[in-house]
């Protein structure tokens, strides 16, 4: 079986990391998988970049320009909206032609347009689409934040000036997506049971096949290690307790840094605690923390990232919206108990008071309570053991690959039946 995984990048962003890990998991389990990307950042031979063309950057710029105009020249929501009004046609590429299954992942910001997706569907090849967020089931947004318009038809979009209207940009894109899917079948795979439920509630995806499979992780890379040795390698003091926060961009409001800042204020009595901030713009938030804090900046060296997980005592991700965050999975694989809000797929990863703490949504008080509970637990080793056990049972490469192979076989059989 030959599978072509399609994603905007092979390294940048959580979806890229997850898609890359899935490619490796499939190749380790008898499937010939390749990855097609616009932005190739690795030297992997199984990752193929789109042919170089000035149009690649133009697709991105044109979509942003159109959005910028529709936002009345405001940048406020410029990167929270995707129209898929421009993108590449991949159906003539040899990698597409030789594939038995086309597996879409995060294809936004000029990678694929709705028209090019429609062309893929009309090629006759079975299509699987992994949902790393809600965008495939809505018109414009990747995060709904309580909006339920996608259960009927998108309109009055909160991201548009004045809250949109009855027949705004979201409505027109919604109808374009309807036409894209008309008469076609896609096997949608959500990365969490929560997102599967949201996708099934979408009026856009009614009649489509939807299931959930978590992202895989390589436990040979992410694993428990000696905490003191990890701290020595990082040059950290050995006699502290470390609270770790990680995000690609820590100033992203959706990642909830404001709640961690407030929680740290409530934990001011933990004089031995230090907060490690991993991600871009870390130095901007460090001065706002009541506890001692160390900005680690953006790190792309996987070995160093593992050291950081192994050096910490608790991982905190107070996101306001999440699917199934890779960072929690990585932390748990390294035996690191986690604390996060009860939102999205986070409660599927963290088993409350078994391998971490699930705090009440948007409650800095409960977030602080969870951090304190982990750091002062007399059963810390048991929490750590359960983290490793949970990852090995639910998120191992083999278990995830087997489930995807079953979906591919179903999609191929259904497509053959229709023909």
Task: Please give a handful of descriptors for the protein shown.
single chain; 419 residues; alpha/beta; 7-stranded parallel sheet; 6-stranded parallel sheet; globular
Structure description:
With 419 residues, this protein is of the alpha/beta class. 38% of the residues lie in helices and 16% in strands. The protein has 15 helices and 13 strands. The strands form two sheets. A seven-stranded parallel beta sheet has the order 3-2-1-4-5-6-7. Helix 8 crosses helix 13. The longest helix has 22 residues, at 397-418. The chain is globular and about 60 Å long. The model has no long low-confidence stretch (mean pLDDT 96).
Average pLDDT confidence is 96
Report the sheet-strand fraction: 15-25%
Q: What is the CA-atom radius of gyration, in angstroms?
A: 22 Å
Low-confidence stretches: none
Give the proportion of residues in helices.
25-40%
Q: Indicate the structural class.
A: alpha/beta
| Biggest sheet details | 7 strands, parallel
Biggest sheet, strands in spatial order? 3-2-1-4-5-6-7
Shape: globular
The succession of helices and strands, N to C, reads EHEEHHEHEHEHEHEHEHEHEHEHEHHH
**How many β-strand runs?**
13
Please give the count of helices.
Answer: 15
Q: What is the CA–CA distance across the termini? A: 19 Å
């Amino acid at each position: 079986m030959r599978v072509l995984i399609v994603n905007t990048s092979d390294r940048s962003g959580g979806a890229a990391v997850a898609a890359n890990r899935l490619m490796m998991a499939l190749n380790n389990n008898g499937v010939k998988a390749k990855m097609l990307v616009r932005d190739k950042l690795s030297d992997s031979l199984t990752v193929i970049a789109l042919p170089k063309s000035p149009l690649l950057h133009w697709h991105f710029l044109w979509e942003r320009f159109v959005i910028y105009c529709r936002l009345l020249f405001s940048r406020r929501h410029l990167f929270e909206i995707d129209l898929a009004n421009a993108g590449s046609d991949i159906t003539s590429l040899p990698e597409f032609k030789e594939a038995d299954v086309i597996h879409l992942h995060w294809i936004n910001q000029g990678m694929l347009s709705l028209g090019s997706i429609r062309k893929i569907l009309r090629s006759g090849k079975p299509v699987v689409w992994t949902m790393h967020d809600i965008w495939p089931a809505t018109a414009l947004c990747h995060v709904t934040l309580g909006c339920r318009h996608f259960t009927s038809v998108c309109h009055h979009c909160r991201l548009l000036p004045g809250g949109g209207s009855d027949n705004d940009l979201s409505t027109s894109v919604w109808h374009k997506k309807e036409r894209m899917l008309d008469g076609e079948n896609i096997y949608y795979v959500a990365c969490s049971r929560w997102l599967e439920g949201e996708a099934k509630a979408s009026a856009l995806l009614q009649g489509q096949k939807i299931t959930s499979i978590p992202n895989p992780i390589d436990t040979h890379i992410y694993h428990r290690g000696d905490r003191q040795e990890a701290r020595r390698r990082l040059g950290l003091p050995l006699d502290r307790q470390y609270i770790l926060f990680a995000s690609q961009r820590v100033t992203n409001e959706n990642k909830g840094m404001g709640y961690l800042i407030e929680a740290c204020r409530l934990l001011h009595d933990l004089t031995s605690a230090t907060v490690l901030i991993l991600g871009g713009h870390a130095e901007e938030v460090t001065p706002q923390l009541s506890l001692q804090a160390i900005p680690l900046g953006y790190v792309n060296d996987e070995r160093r990232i593992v050291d950081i997980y192994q050096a910490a005592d608790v991982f905190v991700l107070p996101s306001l919206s999440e699917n199934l965050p890779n960072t929690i999975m990585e932390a748990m694989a390294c035996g690191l108990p986690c604390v996060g809000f009860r939102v999205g797929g986070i409660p599927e990863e963290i088993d409350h008071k078994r391998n971490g703490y699930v705090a009440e949504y948007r409650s800095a008080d409960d977030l602080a309570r969870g951090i304190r509970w982990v750091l002062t637990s007399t059963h810390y080793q048991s929490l750590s053991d359960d983290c490793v056990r949970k990852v090995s049972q639910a998120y191992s490469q083999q278990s995830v690959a087997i489930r995807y192979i079953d979906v591919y076989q179903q999609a191929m059989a259904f497509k053959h039946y229709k023909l």
